[in-house]
Amino acid sequence: MHRNHDLYQFFLEKTWDLTEEWYKNVDKEESGGIYTSEDPAVIERVKKQNYEFHKQFSEVFHKEEEAFFRELESWIVKVAQDDEHLRTPLEMILQEFFNTQEQYLNLLEQFVEISQGQYDEKQIALWRRMIIRTIGEVVTWFTEEYNNHSQKRLQAQQALILELSSPVISLTEDIALLPLVGDIDTARAKIMLENTLQQCNKIGVSQLFLDLSGVVMIDTMVAHQLFQLIEALSLIGVKTTISGLRPEIAQTAVQLGLTFDHVSIKSTLSSAIKSANIIAG
């Protein structure tokens, strides 16, 4: 039986002391991330998070294990998705968990000492194993949550980059430009299709210049999606003019059986814009 009211109370009374001791001993030069911050608000928040963890952890000697982990879940999820922690290397965070484990093992020794032989070695060993096992489970759980949120954050950043990489630029009230630069893969082409349709509809575009001069090569799937974009634009009343079409891309389109019958083609963006009488020339 690992639950013990006296041990629970002893740990609970030491929670703030544990936090102060922990923060004092954190290597603020080597740890990186949240632990190196000199912002008083960040320091206060990280101390509060640590203090809340100690209060939660003390409950392992007071509550049923299932109830204990159920209540600890909110702390793990909250801290794992905290921006400051997500900017902190995971190995640094895990090291602090193991430092905390050492704090608890030392605190247990203090409790045993003041208990003056009240508990046998078997009971003490059980408590040690409980501390180590619980920290181990917390580390595993935290790592999973941290990685999940890091992945979601990365995906959101990638989506934003992809969205910004295909901007619809207004040239006049109803004429716009979509300049494409760099490699276009299937993921970027899909976002470009959705984003371009939304932007053209939002700003009331009737003619769109699609400039491909910055695109060196696209595969057959992406070429097909580009023509799907042109067809979709026509359905919402947007006429598309393609400029800067490289021979390699044209050849890919021909191999796919895609035609340019309903698309205006210009060799350069400059000539495309001149054809719309936006600039003199």
From TrEMBL:
<dbReference type="InterPro" id="IPR036513">
    <property type="entry name" value="STAS_dom_sf"/>
</dbReference>
<dbReference type="InterPro" id="IPR002645">
    <property type="entry name" value="STAS_dom"/>
</dbReference>
<dbReference type="InterPro" id="IPR051932">
    <property type="entry name" value="Bact_StressResp_Reg"/>
</dbReference>
<dbReference type="Pfam" id="PF01740">
    <property type="entry name" value="STAS"/>
</dbReference>
<protein>
    <submittedName>
        <fullName>RsbT co-antagonist protein RsbRB</fullName>
    </submittedName>
</protein>
<keyword id="KW-0597">Phosphoprotein</keyword>
<feature type="domain" description="STAS">
    <location>
        <begin position="165"/>
        <end position="276"/>
    </location>
</feature>
